[in-house]
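Deliverable D5.2: sample structural annotation.
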Amino acid sequence: MGKADAIADIQYIGTAMDSALKQNAENPRLSKETIRQIKEGSVRKVAGFHIRDKSSLQSTLHRASSRAAEQIDGFRRTCDKISVDMATRGLKPALAFVSTKTWKRICDESGLYRFKPVEGLVKVSRQPLERMRSRAESLSSLLIRLMVPAIVFAISWEIFTILPPDAKQGGPKVIAGILSILTGVIIWLILSIVFDEDLASSLKERLASFCTILQIKMFSVLPNRLTFKGLFPDMEEAGDSNCISAEIKLPDPPEDEMNDVATTILAAKDLGLKVAAVPGAVTFVGGIQNALLRRETADHAIRLSEIEKRREARRLDPIIYHEREGVVAIIAQFGNIPIEKKVVERIMNDRDII
């Protein structure tokens, strides 16, 4: 598309906006949803009848039309302010003025994503990473559950294979198989005692993180038109604080426009510039996987730290008590207490306990 065509398209949007505003100013038009709400609000319930109060309806419609006219005036005043700011920076007049609501609809229906890069960084949604994490946790839980019969089977098979040949025939074969399975179960129970809940949680977390990283690598090879739907679900940057920063690079202007466009961008940089572009025009520096992997690595470290903190907390669980006149009243306790039974029994057997 040439420069003249591009400018004509943008100018067409501005001209269409001016025309629509002029028509609305002469004959204010309310949205269907606004009219529906006004009509519903004008209904009065009298003696079981639902009656529309026409005078109230007309009055409300008039006030709504007045507000619409005020919005148009406010839009034009803002346009004038922007024009003054641009002129003070030596910029040419804007190619078009469009309301934010209208521009959003135009971009949405045209497949244009909206960004406000800060030194090249944009905010992407965590939703894809959270979905990957959810699938990874489900898979890791399943694998850990399958680990029990797998270990029992492996141990049982190993024990059975080392038995003498005479024990693998007829009745002895059945008995040997049962004993092998029982031995495997016993060994698994011992392992279950040795590996506490926190160790199991740590194993599950490491496995889930590994599965998440695999998904990130597969996600990163997809074309932008597929990944953008998850990274920018509202077709614009994520607005919440719990997002992921990623660096993007946009196409350089064509050589014949370099001086004009580059100068304009530099002069307008402190206005708070935003960009609307199709997915194919946006490149993630280092690939989107770098941003997702950085966040997953950081989150993984935090989750492991929390598991370790819980483990340490159980080792150092507090006991809350009140002491008065030689009497200790144990008021509360949580978790495990680091007091062995034999210690208690030995002390209680001592006559000097009061």
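Annotation notes: The longest strand covers residues 327-333. The CA atoms of residues 132 and 214 lie 9 Å apart.
The annotation will be released with the project's public dataset once the embargo ends.
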